[in-house]
Each structure stands twice: as C-alpha cells, then as structure tokens.
Amino acid sequence: MASQKDKMLAGELYLADDPELAAAYAKAQAILARFNATRGDHVDMLTAHLSELVDHLGEGAIVKPSLRCDYGFNISIGARSFLNYDCVLLDCNRITIGEEAQIAPGVHIYTATHPLDAATRRSGLECAQPVTIGDGVWLGGRTVVCPGVTIGENTVVGAGSVVVHDLPANVLAVGSPCRPIRDL
Questions:
Q1: Alpha-carbon distances, residue 9 vs 20, 21, 28 (angstroms)
Q2: Which of 123, 143, 175, 176 is deepest in the core (most CB within 10 A)?
Q3: Catalytic site residue 114?
Q4: Which domains does the chain have, with CATH numbers?
Q5: What is the pLDDT of residues 88-142, one digit of tens each?
Q6: What values do phi and psi take at 131, rounded to 5?
Q7: What SS3 state is found at 156?
Q8: What end-to-end distance do the CA atoms of the chain give, in Å?
C-alpha cells in the first residue's frame, strides 16, 4: 500500500496530517527557523542551512531570507539561480527551478491544491502537482505560480502575474491570468 508521502508525490489525494509528513514538516520548519534567523551577509551559514533543507542546491545559487516552504526535500534550485526576499515555495510536490533563474521578492510557487468537491475537501484530503521553472526564467515580484505549471526557459513573467497555465520558452508574459504578450 502506498504511503501518504508516495500519494502526495504521485499527485493523488493524500492526508497531509500523516505522521511521516508531519515529522518531515517539523524538521523543515526547524531548519527554516535557523535559515531565516541568519544574517544575510553570513552566506556560508545560509548555504549550509539550505543544503540541509532542499533536495538540490546548485553551485552559486543564492536564496535570501526569509523563505517559507512545507518540506524542502521536494525543492531543486539550479546553479547560479537567485531567489530574493520573502519567497514561498509550497512544495507538497516537486518544485524544480532551473539554472540562472531570477526569482524576485515575494514570489509564491504553489504545488498544493485541493479537491473542488466540498465533501472530499472537508474530509482532509488534498493533492499536489509539480511545478517546473526553466533555465534563465525571470519571475517578477509578487508573481504567483499555480500547481502543475511549467514555465519554459528564458521566459520573463511580469510582476504581480498569476500563472495558471504553462508558458512557452522565450516569451514575455504578464497578467492575471498570465498570458504571453510577445516573443523574446
């Protein structure tokens, strides 16, 4: 029988209050508390905390405090990527950030979602879909990326956009819902 964690990562309905997931969440929150309490100029300490938290932290990647996430182990950040202050990465499924991505302040990336059926939702079941941010992507400040979205390489997403559908590579996209407005 599949564990709740296995169901979560498979995009199936799962119970988030499962003891294994609760323990993983508690561990991540302890690491985040240390990370978020570390001074920004203590780069080695910040990197050490992030390396303990995330699945992959590419060489030269920088993440500014504060950061919020659920588990950390579902996050991969590519080499030379930059995540600015106050990002939220709800990583109930994989969040893959490519190399040399620029993530502006206050960006939220969500994998978590909930059933539309009220009775199922009230039962405590939820689900999650992976998010992929391609190499060289720039997400403007306060952008929200919704569950299941893939953003193609080198795409620029304007500040305040809400990305609910995949975006192709090499476009400028803006709005809520976010739409490509021109090729780059």
A1: 13, 12, 17
A2: 143
A3: yes
A4: 4-183 (2.160.10.10)
A5: 999 999 999 999 999 999 999 999 999 999 999 999 999 999 999 999 999 999 9
A6: -125, 135
A7: strand
A8: 47
